[in-house]
Amino acid sequence: MNWSLLNIATNFNNLRYSIGIAMMFNGFPLIFFIRDTLGIGPASSVFTAIFFALALCLMVPMHLFKRLYKPNVILFNLGLGFLLLTLYYFFFINKQGKSVADIGNYVFIFGFLILLMHVPNDVKDTLIMILFLMSLFTNITLVYSILNDPNWTPGMRAAVSFANEGAQPGGNPHITARNGIICMLSGMVMLGRTPGIFTKLFLFFSVLFSLGVIVIALAKSSYLAVGIMILAYFILQFKISNVFSAIGSAFKMKNMAFIVLIILGIRYFLIRYGNVLDMLLGYWDAFENRILDVIFTSTGVRITETADTDASAMGRVGGFGEFTETLFSWDVFLGRGYKSDYLDIPLLESWVSHGVFGFVFFAGFNFFLFVYAVREVRRYTNPLTTFLAYFFFSLMVLLFTGGRPYDIAFWFPYLVMIRFLGIKYLDNIPRRSATTQLTTVTS
């Protein structure tokens, strides 16, 4: 973590690019805080549109359409193919109507994609810092929001309550947990390559804080996402030799001081806020009960006497039934049309709504994302791409448990992955002469 990158005088363009990308990548928690907690702006999608428009304005370069940077070509072709296919269905095979919100989503998706092609490669170090700092700030605003929410009590799912009429009561805890994952991941990937002991302590306790936010959000998909990311680390990167090298390095004076400060910090926290630990353990018990409910709903096996039907899991069971009906009908080829059925399983909905071609594009895109994520975790190119690789593993859970295949909650991160994941960076390529660097498209 290089604090000098926050110097506006020397790093202005990279900072504004990074802030704009971070606002698109993870803007919803900040939107909810400003709009619903602080009461600034209209409590509607208009404020969201203004927020994203501001983010895109921050990304506009001085060399617009004059200098482009090469994305991951395979991901670009598959992702763009799916988006164009769904856009065709939106205009011509659509029984649900053409809402302003859907049009706005496509405008922001394609606008974000175009501007990402103009963002230079050396933004990567600034971007990972901004993603971390913005998500950490949003975690703090979450604590402020729930402490000032008269309807929230310990034990409830943590989220910013929506202010607009008829909104989902209690806010959206999945957005809260996702922000916690982003903060935890970005802090972890920077922690290993940060030299200063106080910066390391700051990152370490920010990671712990983020883990606490994930726990109190009580989102099953995020718990599973954390488990998948840990499993990916042990399968793809962990080596037994790392244990011995870590033990050896722990006895170095600097590292011993770091460990002592961590122990003292945790001890002080437990003494001062012991009830917080009890609350987190209570959330974990609630999570176990929810998992047992899902098992009972999906399989009919009642492991405990208290297990009950889980409404969200029951909805996905019904969605799978819609998929099997489509599979054995003529709709298997072209699908039923744009947003014809809400399955809550994006991978299957891509087939039900858009036929075999929609599934091939969407599933193929995610398959290659998985391949590039595995490759990146194994080799660790830089903190940003490592963060994106692990974050994709967390998104894999949602492909089977929630959302729609064209949600901007998917596609804003997907577009950043298209631009940065699995390509060669300038700092990894030998410097060429000035005449060979002046090209329209750089890799």
Automatic annotation (TrEMBL):
According to the record, the segments passing through the membrane are: 15-34, 46-65, 71-91, 103-120, 126-147, 197-218, 224-244, 256-274, 351-372, 384-402, 408-426
Give the source's domain of life in one word: Bacteria
The question of whether Repressor is a record keyword is answered with no
The alphabetical list of record keywords is: Membrane, Transmembrane, Transmembrane helix
| UniProt entry tagged with the keyword Phosphoprotein | no
Q: What is this protein called?
A: Uncharacterized protein
